[in-house]
Amino acid sequence: NAGVTQTPKFQVLKTGQSMTLQCAQDMNHNSMYWYRQDPGMGLRLIYYSASEGTTDKGEVPNGYNVSRLNKREFSLRLESAAPSQTSVYFCATRAGGQETQYFGPGTRLLVL
Amino acid sequence: QKEVEQDPGPLSVPEGAIVSLNCTYSNSAFQYFMWYRQYSRKGPELLMYTYSSGNKEDGRFTAQVDKSSKYISLFIRDSQPSDSATYLCAMSGGDGGSNYKLTFGKGTLLTVNP
Q: What is the pLDDT of residues A52-62, one digit of tens each?
């Protein structure tokens, strides 16, 4: 039982390159979330998916797109990376009827 | 005014000390309160979860909620070097209208010195 997994663990991109961050869960949770964490800014919600087939914008969605591929997987795509997107990205999940979220180990992204 | 305020620290204490970590909030609709612990270069992990006002104890950890003052606390007794981490408070209204989004504090960095 791996919980929430994220790939890759670390990535370096050049400005303008694209990439997809992957998140998978084996907890059978309905809802999934993408956050970014920056020094002094805390955790900020980028996008979330309340259930399979639905996605909604969070606090800081600009420059990102998401896909809820199935119940297990929720990916985050950067179409044209910018240095301002240098951050640590966390995926989280939540079971139906509960308030608590469970986080993955994170992806550290550096955009040069 | 930010919805959730949390002193970023850093807070440095000797081993064995009692640690008090706090958050204040402005949204009276918040009913569910959580504390997450985040070790360096790791993801946040759920530490404590309380509903509405009152206390909850789990081993050396006690979570306290005072809704009348809009103030929550996490107490750590007999602190250990392994407690050194960033502690994040989080809360939600639980009414479904916010799609169960959590509002986080920015975290307090705690160091427990041997």
A: 889 999 999 99
